[in-house]
Structure formats: structure tokens, C-alpha cells
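hiii so um. not sure if this is the right channel but i have a protein structure encoded as C-alpha cells and i wanna go backwards to a sequence. like what aa goes where. can anyone help
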């Protein structure tokens, strides 16, 4: 059996008794960083376990090796450095391999930074979109941010502290300035902090206060704020997306989703504007 096991996102007290029991019982533990997992295993009395390094850069070769162990009848646990495996962390590929090979797997659930932050944010939890990390640079990042404009549910982002200011200025540029946001930092740890500001307020706040620690950003959607969409704004967005190198098809796809105008109609509109 493969066990995907949730581990603490900061506070070691959050390891569940079932997670500790299974980690003690399995034959092998696949983990991202053996030093990080070693600290946890020591705490739960499982320091002698056989560890397999399994991370983003070796998962293609290590995945089949783990499948081989499972086929030989061993029990294997997979953990990430923090939180749930497969959530902005390795795990997804291993699950897919296991399913393909007809092997048994189960999950021992634990904390997830995104859900912990969402609950603390004070924003709507009825519908939410988990974005995780945006692509770090380039047109893929711009495309994702454009896409976020169309969502009408709370958006949950992961961001590294040294990139938070860049993210905020990009969100402000994309029109999110007036949207409320919660900046959830160091969750479950001693210096846990949640700051609730609009995106524009946060731009000024983090100019004065250097972001430190791990962040989850929960963001109010833009869509409700902007409705009804005005024509001049659509034209402006078409030109800006064209300038960022997007094709007519890409632009009309995104804007059709954001505005509710049909793809065909939006395609015609984009073509007309770009021809003129
Ligand atoms: N698998 C993890 C989960 O279940 O949440 C996420 C791992 S991802 C590689 C790491 C990112 O999660 C960090 O950059 C940060 O955005 C967020 N994160 C993890 N722990 C956190 C914490 N204690 N407080 C705030 N954000 C956290």
C-alpha cells in the first residue's frame, strides 16, 4: 500500500496520531528532504526508518523505483516537507503511477496551508479557487493573472516572501487594487500573522514592511467588482494582451470567459479592433 501522509505546516503538534502510527509501521518513507523529514521522524520515534529521496527533480526515475517496492509487497509512505503531498508538492505523479499499475493507495490527511489560510481570511469560503504558485516569470505568468480576472470565487495563492511585492504590483496593475485580501503568514507557528488589506493598501504596507516568512494570499475576486464590463475597458485589455504577445484566439478565449460574451462574438471583436 502507498500512504500519502499529511505532515505539519509549521507546528509539530499538528502531526496526527494516525500519521505517526503509519509512519512508524511502513517499510519505506519517500520524502523531499531527508533532513526535514528526519526531524519529524525523530519526534515520533521513527528515526530508524529507511528513507527514499523523492522530489521534483528526481521523481521521473524514483517513481518507478517506489512502484517496484510496492509490487514487491512493501508498504511505502510519501510525505512532503510540509503539508499535504501533491498540493504544490510532489505526489501527484506517484498517485497516477500507482493507479496505472493497479496498486492500492490511501491518504492520511493533514494540514494544508491554503485551506488554513482560507478559513482565517474572512473571505467567502463557499466557492474558492486554489491557484498555488503562479508561473514564476514570462507570458505564462501574465496569462494566469489575466485568467484570475475572470474568477468569481475567492482566489488562494502561494507566494515566496521575496516575490510578494512583485505579485502585489502585478495584481494591482491587473485591476485587483480595490479587492480585499488576507496575507496569511507563518501559519500555525509562533509568529503567525494575518493582515487583511486591499491589494493597493498592501502595496504601500509592504513597501514599509519587508515581507518575511511563508505566505498564503487569499484574494477577493475581481469579477463582481467590475460588472457590468465597459467597452472601453475591454478594448484596453485586448491591446494590452496583444502587446504581451498573446494570439487573437488566446485573447478572445480569456475575455469571453471574463465577460460572459460568447467566444465567437469576442473573436470578431478582437479581430476588428486589431485590424483598425
Ligand atoms: N504541500 C503544502 C500544503 O499542503 O500546503 C504546500 C507546499 S508549497 C511547496 C509551500 C508554500 O505553501 C509556501 O511557499 C507558502 O506559500 C505555503 N505555506 C506552507 N506552510 C505555510 C505556513 N506555515 N504559513 C503560510 N504559508 C505556508
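sure thing!! here u go:
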Amino acid at each position: 500500500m502507498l500512504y500519502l501522509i499529511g505532515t505539519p505546516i509549521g507546528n509539530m503538534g499538528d502531526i496526527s496520531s494516525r500519521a505517526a502510527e503509519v509512519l512508524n509501521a511502513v517499510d519505506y518513507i519517500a520524502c523531499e528532504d531527508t533532513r526535514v523529514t528526519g526531524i519529524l521522524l525523530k519526534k515520533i520515534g521513527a528515526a530508524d526508518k529507511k528513507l527514499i529521496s523523492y522530489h521534483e527533480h528526481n521523481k521521473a526515475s524514483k517513481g518507478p523505483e517506489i512502484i517496484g517496492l510496492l509490487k514487491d509487497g512493501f508498504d511505502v509512505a510519501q510525505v512532503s516537507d510540509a503539508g499535504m503531498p501533491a498540493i504544490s508538492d510532489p505526489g501527484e505523479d506517484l498517485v497516477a503511477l500507482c493507479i496505472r499499475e493497479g496498486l492500492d493507495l490511501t491518504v492520511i490527511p493533514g494540514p494544508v496551508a491554503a485551506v488554513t489560510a482560507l478559513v482565517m481570511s474572512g473571505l467567502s469560503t463557499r466557492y474558492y479557487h486554489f491557484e498555488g504558485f503562479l508561473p514564476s516569470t514570462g507570458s505564462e505568468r501574465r496569462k494566469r493573472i489575466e485568467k484570475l480576472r475572470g474568477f468569481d470565487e475567492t482566489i488562494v495563492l502561494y507566494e515566496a516572501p521575496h516575490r510578494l511585492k512583485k505579485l502585489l504590483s502585478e495584481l494591482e496593475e491587473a485591476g485587483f487594487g480595490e479587492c480585499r485580501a488576507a496575507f496569511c503568514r507563518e501559519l500555525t507557528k509562533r509568529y503567525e500573522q494575518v493582515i487583511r488589506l486591499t491589494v493597493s493598501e498592501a502595496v504601500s504596507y509592504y513597501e514599509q514592511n519587508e515581507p518575511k516568512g511563508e505566505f498564503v494570499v487569499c484574494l477577493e475576486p475581481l469579477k463582481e467588482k467590475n460588472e457590468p464590463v465597459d467597452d472601453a475597458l475591454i478594448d484596453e485589455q485586448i491591446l494590452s494582451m496583444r502587446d504581451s504577445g498573446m494570439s487573437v484566439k488566446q485573447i478572445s478565449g480569456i475575455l469571453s470567459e471574463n465577460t460572459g460574451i460568447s467566444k465567437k462574438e469576442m473573436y470578431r471583436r478582437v479581430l476588428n479592433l486589431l485590424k483598425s
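oh and DSSP finds twelve helices and ten strands in the chain.
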